[in-house]
Amino acid sequence: MAAPEWPEVGLALSEGRRELVVRGPRPDGEELDPRLYGLLLLQHLDVSGVAGLQGLGAGLGGLRALRSLVLSGDGLQALPPELGELSGLRLLDVSHNRLSALPAALGRLAELSSLKAGANRLLALPAELARCSRLAHLDLCDNLLAELPAALLRPGLHLLSTLNVARNRIEQLDADICELRGLRSLDLSDNNLSEIPYELADCPKLKEINFKGNKLKDKRLEKMINGCQTKSILDYLKAGGRGKGRGKADSSEKNESKEKARKKKAVKRDDAEESDGMEDVNKLVIRVLHVSESPCTVSVKVTPNVKDVRPYIVCCIVEGMNLRPGNALKRFLVAQTKLHDDICLKRTLATIATHDLQLVKGPLLYDARPSHSLKITPLGRKEVKAVDLLQQLQMEADEQRKQKKRQNVTGLHKYLQLLNGKENFPCLVDAEDCVISFPPITNSDKTKIKKPTSQLFLEVTSSANLQACKEVMDSLIMRMAELNKFTFESQEPDSVSGDEAEVTSDRAAVPDPMVNRTSTKAAGPELIVKQVRVVDVDGNLKVVYPAKTDLNLNIDCVTVIR
């Protein structure tokens, strides 16, 4: 049988690309196109939905520049040990395959921060995974795991913030779970747990837990899990459950603790006038308003068409961002670009879009439409069909390469390959049926932000998962708060006139300064974040952001008021 030749690989070779996306069934999809291993500069590789891959081949280990590798829905039954040679890999997605084990070589991936292995047939995990000290997100849902290896529940994984092992066969959770000091979200729903260790309450950053679907011996705890908030459940565990365990602490110790607390409180009260406003002098203040508190909130309806294209979206409204003074707007646009390159993994994980709320006419529709009929007025350009826009950008990219005599390109041209092979393109459409966003490529000129913009509509979309959208939105809002405080402290004069109000995110911007959090005489202005509901076509809620579990930043310099 002749080796398969995929057109996407041939194009990537001819253009020297650093990203390659191959999706969908292949008539010769039992093995990878061997030419792929010649893309030595490749940083992002996505081979998904091929369904039938017999293996990956030893050549994969030669792609040392890879930062993200997506092999989802390919029918893989095993992963080669050569994966351990990808020393710079940060994201590995092998979900929706037929894997019964993960190679121990994964323990050599020192830079790995996100591992997605859900919807497989995993019976166990390699203990070597605990060596991945930068691991932050671990998704193992829908497998056949009977336990979590004790090696994983060690201080070495101090950055692990999200652990999803829902719908497995886990019968016991080790008390060493408390060693995961960075854990924020834990999902152990639909397992075979009968008890939950009270040590779980010692995880200092834990904000979201899910133990539904387990038959617990403590029926009161089981009832709380089905109806109470995380804090109430953790308080119950901290007390040892029904007054047991640590709830039976020696009374003298309790009295001593109470006395210390009383004295400490008295000292604080005596110094209240002097310290009022001083403790928060360097605080970044973010105030969250519920949907019921913000009547101007725009709703977003999601159609089924986006399911196989780019299914995840979260939105919110931000007020209080001052873009008028000096270079405030340019700094914000630079920050957005940096987030795209870093946490968004060059838009392969998620894409940010920002709009002037006053120019957004709701309700909005998140849809996927044929490339030949989708029209948009891109930032700084005239109205054009999406397919024609991509052709224009490709021609510009080719011209860039010729002029600069190098393979890499800048601007929107870097993201063209993310839509390769798609017949339908994702889009956000307003009430007038105008496309205001075309992720992951560009926004519409109709709703672009300018210096006078005071209310922003923020949108984050992803083809990976909903949690990625939320985490990117958290980071964006945090960065906005920092920039707003910097603008407040720098006291730049307002400069809204003429062409300066027409700055867009596609134009050059000034360097993004570090935020000075020490030299200030007054607290910076607060940002107001208003919830936005995302619903399906029948009006059923899909997601609201920020929910109670969002924006739980646990950062000393940030105060979130709900």
Indicate how many domains the architecture comprises. Answer: 2
Q: DSSP strand (E) fraction?
A: 15-25%
Q: Helicity range of the residues?
A: 10-25%
Under CATH, the homologous superfamily of the largest domain reads: Ribonuclease Inhibitor
CATH second-level architecture of the largest domain: Alpha-Beta Horseshoe
Number of helices, where a helix is a run of at least 4 consecutive DSSP H or I residues: 8
Taking Cα atoms only, what radius of gyration do you get, to the nearest Å?
25 Å
Gap from first CA to last CA: 63 Å
Label the structural class.
alpha/beta
Major sheet summary line: 12 strands, mixed
CATH class of the largest domain: Alpha Beta
The CATH topology of the largest domain is given as Leucine-rich repeat, LRR (right-handed beta-alpha superhelix)
Low-confidence blocks of residues: 242-255, 267-281, 498-523
CA-based shape: globular
Question: In words, what does this structure look like?
Answer:
This protein has helices spanning 7-15, 219-227, 230-238, 251-270, 272-275, 328-341, 386-404, 466-490, and strands at 19-23, 44-48, 68-70, 91-93, 114-116, 137-139, 162-164, 185-187, 208-210, 284-289, 300-302, 312-319, 351-356, 364-370, 375-376, 384-385, 424-429, 435-438, 442-443, 455-462, 527-536, 541-545, 558-561. It is of the alpha/beta class and 562 residues long. Helix 6 runs antiparallel to helix 8. The N and C termini lie far apart (63 Å). Mean pLDDT is 81; it is low at 242-255, 267-281 and 498-523.
